[in-house]
Recover the amino acids of this structure.
């Protein structure tokens, strides 16, 4: 049975948004906790200065730098959240593949880090564009990442390459020295793949998965 784009969003969208929302809110909470901690330290230094203790400029500067770092981090998280929130605005658009991968990795960074997996993303020499729904592309890339990383041993390295294959088709290749799970969610992936005119090719050793566009 073929489902419409809206039916697929209604079925799988809430779970994906919920998972990413929980991860992002946790990251923002961490930023605020660090800012709050350093604000407390700054308050302590100000109180000591009011009592006549000479201020430690180096420590004070260090506190400010840590606060500025967390503000920049939170700003980046919110920009990713904003881009993600607007991913369903257009049912069809031209999408920069490497930008989409970067957004997925940014949104799911905490989840992947908690699994102890290091992900290296190598951009294509030139811009590669695919046509379709940004939301479906993000959710598809994340689904593949989840299937691969959930069974990898801690400290495994996953390499992601954006490229044109030997047939001049745009390809997003996931490669790891260790074998990963073979039980991909075929139902969810097949519908998103069809809407993006793509296919997923796994090697026999389950160390490589190629997402190929333009089938």
């Amino acid at each position: 049975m073929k489902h419409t784009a809206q039916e697929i969003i209604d079925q799988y969208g809430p779970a994906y948004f919920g998972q990413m929302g929980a991860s992002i809110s946790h990251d923002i909470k961490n930023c605020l906790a660090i800012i709050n901690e350093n604000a407390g330290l700054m308050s302590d230094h100000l109180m000591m200065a009011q009592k006549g203790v000479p201020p430690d400029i180096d420590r004070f500067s260090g506190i400010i730098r840590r606060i500025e770092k967390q503000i920049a981090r939170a700003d980046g998280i919110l920009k990713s959240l904003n881009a993600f929130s607007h991913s369903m605005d257009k049912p069809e658009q031209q999408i920069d593949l490497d930008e989409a991968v970067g957004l997925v990795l940014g949104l799911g960074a905490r989840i992947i880090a908690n699994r102890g997996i290091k992900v290296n993303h190598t951009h294509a020499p030139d811009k590669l564009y695919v046509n379709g729904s940004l939301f479906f592309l993000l959710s598809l890339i994340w689904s593949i990442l989840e299937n691969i990383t959930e069974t990898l041993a801690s400290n495994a390295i996953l390499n992601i390459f954006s490229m044109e294959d030997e047939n001049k088709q745009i390809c997003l290749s996931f490669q790891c020295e260790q074998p990963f799970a073979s039980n991909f969610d075929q139902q969810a992936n097949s519908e998103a793949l069809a809407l993006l005119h793509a296919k997923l090719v796994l090697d026999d050793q389950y160390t490589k998965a190629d997402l190929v566009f333009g089938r």
